[in-house]
Amino acid sequence: MPDTPDVDRTARDMAERVFAAYARQANVRIHPGVEQTLLTRLAEALRPLIGRAADRLVDAANRVLDDIELTVPDLRGPRIASLNPVDKAVTTRDGSVPVISGG
């Protein structure tokens, strides 16, 4: 099996961290099917922006979160304030920073 390109791995890792920050503060438990959809859509949105300005990554992640909440009306959660692929920190707009160690 070929190695996953770095940009794909980075996008997937960032998507997982955004999801974890969002899910930690979501108002309802996120169904596994919604989780997979959200992770896929986050990775797809973030991938073309890897290596670009951090605010573009944050905007893309928040657009995906906005969209998922339109399709799952009972779901609400925080928006992303910052996303740092170097130290792997994701901060939500309310200021909480989930500590998620890298693998």
Describe the model:
By secondary structure, the protein is mainly alpha-helical. Helix content is 51%, strand content 9%. It has three helices and two strands; from the N terminus they run H-H-H-E-E. The chain has a two-stranded antiparallel ribbon with strand order 1-2. A hairpin with a 4-residue loop joins strand 1 and strand 2 (89-92). The two termini are 20 Å apart.
- Give helix % range: 40-55%
Number of helices: 3
Number of strands: 2
Distance between the termini: 20 Å
Q: Which spans have pLDDT < 50 for at least 5 consecutive residues?
A: 97-103
Secondary-structure-based class equals mainly alpha
Radius of gyration: 13 Å
Percent strand: 5-15%
The overall pLDDT average reads 88
Please tell me what the overall shape is.
Answer: globular
Placed side by side, the strands forming the largest sheet appear as: 1-2
- Major sheet details: 2 strands, antiparallel
The H-and-E topology, N to C, reads as: HHHEE
